């Protein structure tokens, strides 16, 4: 069952993140946040929202959406995308290893596309490692498109182009006919 997460879910989200990040076959799949605690706390109510999928009482998947790019400093991270106040960032998506392959990631993306539409967002952005093929397929299948290449001061590369290359990561922008998630 999917539901919006709140501050009472903080410990469950932190535990899920630790398990997922520790299980990734390539460290480029997800770059840990400088301040994991603030990132999670902020996406539970300060500058975004998170949704989680539960199997009974256990959180098995979660996705974070940044709705206030300035407060979260995502406007700096996404500066090359020229963010506006009507943009949101698909900030994190994680599924426990034993629950992968059940389309939970895609379902979570759809939840956040609906949430972005509900608040009037015109564009959603996400950064994904080109090595993380499963995640790339999920975002592409939900209407995200690559638009060009970006390199950050810490050396991470992000692509906004039509052809991602191995070893790089992608900066996506989902805009079609002025509405996020339209196909």
Automatic annotation (TrEMBL):
Domain N-acetyltransferase intervals: 1-164
Superkingdom: Bacteria
Protein name: N-acetyltransferase domain-containing protein
Organism, as annotated: Mycolicibacterium arenosum
Taxonomic lineage of the native organism: Bacteria, Bacillati, Actinomycetota, Actinomycetes, Mycobacteriales
């Amino acid at each position: 069952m999917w539901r919006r997460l709140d501050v009472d879910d903080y410990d469950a989200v932190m535990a899920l993140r630790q398990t997922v990040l520790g299980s990734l076959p390539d460290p480029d799949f997800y770059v840990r946040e400088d301040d994991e605690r603030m990132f999670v706390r902020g996406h539970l109510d300060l500058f975004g929202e998170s949704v989680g999928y539960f199997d009974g009482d256990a959180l098995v998947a979660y996705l974070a959406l940044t709705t206030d790019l300035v407060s979260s400093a995502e406007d700096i991270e996404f500066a090359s995308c020229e963010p506006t106040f009507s943009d949101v960032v698909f900030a994190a998506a994680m599924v426990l290893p034993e629950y992968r392959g059940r389309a939970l990631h895609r379902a979570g993306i759809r939840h956040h596309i609906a949430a972005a539409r509900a608040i009037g967002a015109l564009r959603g952005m996400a950064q994904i490692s080109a090595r993380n093929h499963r995640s790339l397929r999920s975002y592409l299948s939900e209407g995200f498109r690559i638009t060009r290449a970006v390199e950050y001061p810490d050396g991470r590369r992000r692509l906004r182009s039509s052809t991602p290359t191995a070893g790089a990561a992608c900066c996506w922008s989902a805009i079609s006919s002025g509405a996020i998630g339209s196909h």
